Amino acid sequence: MFIMSEDSQRTQGRDAQSSNIMAGKAVAESVRTTLGPRGMDKMLVDSSGEVVITNDGATILNEMDIEHPAAQMIVEVADSQEEEVGDGTTTAAVIAGNLLGEAEDLIEQDVHATTIVEGYHEASEIALEAISEQVSEEVVDDEVLKQVAESSMTGKGTGGLTAESLAETVVEAIRHVELEDGVARDNVTVHTQIGASSNATELVPGIVIDEEPAHDGMPSEVEDASLAVLDVELGVRTGEIDAEYSIDSIDQLNSAIDAEESEVRGYAETVAESGADVVFTTEDVDDRVASYLATEGVLVFEGIGDSDAKDIVSATGATRVGALDDLEEADFGQADRISAENYGDDDLAFVEGGAAAETVTVFVRGGTEHVVDELERAIGDALDVVATALASGEVVPGAGATEIAIADKIREEAAGIEGRKQLAVNAFADALDIVPRTLAANTGRDPIDALVDLRSAHDSTGRAGLITSGEEVTIDDPFDYGVIDPADVKREAIESATEAATMIARIDDVIAAE
């Protein structure tokens, strides 16, 4: 009796577990060398020849053409980490891969997968307690936030800018969107523009959109602007059906032209008389309307995207209007300055300031597309971790110190756990050693020697990380060097890695349809 298709493939037992674990470990290994301030970059080339150069774990895993379902679970770990806290994707993936490696060794020793899962979950609870114990008692002020941002960007491609200088911009941006009930992270956007050194990167208190004025004769800059956001086509109305009109004389033709001109001029006069200095519309603007408005000194941008319209409304306090007759002064938004600027082949509109401004843009510059893309990723991660740290008010030491502390506490607690589950708990602690070991390897130090020294320093001082400063590598307290991570980044990495590893370890039957 055939239950499955003859073309189906089935892998069971140890073979299935081994295949899944091997796939997960291979994916984790692919990003391991990118970890830390001395991490290396990866060059990813797709089938069309497009190149991505980065050391961002989430980007690397998403760009890879991964088909194995177990390997895709590791990618999901990175995606979850990126979505929740914005950084620590490589750490989460590497820990997940090493947890699988330790699970494989236990399975070969005839430890049941269910026992491993139970031990891993118990160890993860101990790990979360250890993270809380490592939280600094220091108030998370601007200086601490800058250290968090700088730690996040160290080792990533930041062009000609230092992580320290970018950190100031990042913190200023997040402080701009800090509210009484939290941080409006979505109100910070990053806009990239090729054509200048990365040193030209700046913070724009408002938004930047890819648009140009509807007419060359319009002003390129308006100060203290009253602006309208419309969903209105400023042109001759056309019917929804095809129709033909018979004109028998020049007088009839002139009347038709006059009527059309009157309609077009009416649109222009309505807009001009409304008092709006600047108009953004999601629809098209007739050339004649644009010409009339240019004469009146009104700056108009046509065909803007819906998302841009929403951003403008958020940044200026304007109300979107769907009919020109409904346009009133109460619908206007306010901006300190609206300007149209040209950057080579690109035209940009800057909407800055305003009484109701809630949005801020990090305007990223760079000499090449690869530079601005990597800079955008680095700044995006830094914005996320600063927002996370500010929202929670909890930071922990970086440079592998937290992982050393977690592993130490797990081994200490494991002594009180009975049965084979103790093996799984100890294996969890061993898996966490991959973080400091990888940091050491990427700095050129012997991983084993570095791990021994870190454990010894932790036992004597209570906090020890692998600090990289220039060409020197020192074992010391990361807080003294400003190497700091949000506690939630560590928590999320532990939780997501544990979930993925235990899910993969429990699979003992793989059925694949051809």
From TrEMBL:
Keyword ATP-binding: yes
Signal peptide (UniProt feature, chain positions): none
Single GO MF annotation: ATP-dependent protein folding chaperone
UniProt cross-references to SUPFAM superfamilies, sorted A to Z: GroEL apical domain-like, GroEL equatorial domain-like, GroEL-intermediate domain like
Keyword annotations from UniProtKB, A to Z: ATP-binding, Chaperone, Nucleotide-binding
PROSITE patterns according to UniProt: TCP1_1 (PS00750), TCP1_2 (PS00751), TCP1_3 (PS00995)
Region feature Disordered, mapped onto this chain: 1-20
InterPro entries named among the record's database cross-references: Chaperone_TCP-1, Chaperonin_TCP-1_CS, Cpn60/GroEL/TCP-1, GroEL-like_apical_dom_sf, GROEL-like_equatorial_sf, TCP-1-like_intermed_sf, TCP-1_chaperonin, thermosome_alpha
Family: Belongs to the TCP-1 chaperonin family.
Name by which UniProt lists this protein: Thermosome subunit
Organism: Haloterrigena gelatinilytica
Record lineage: Archaea, Methanobacteriati, Methanobacteriota, Stenosarchaea group, Halobacteria
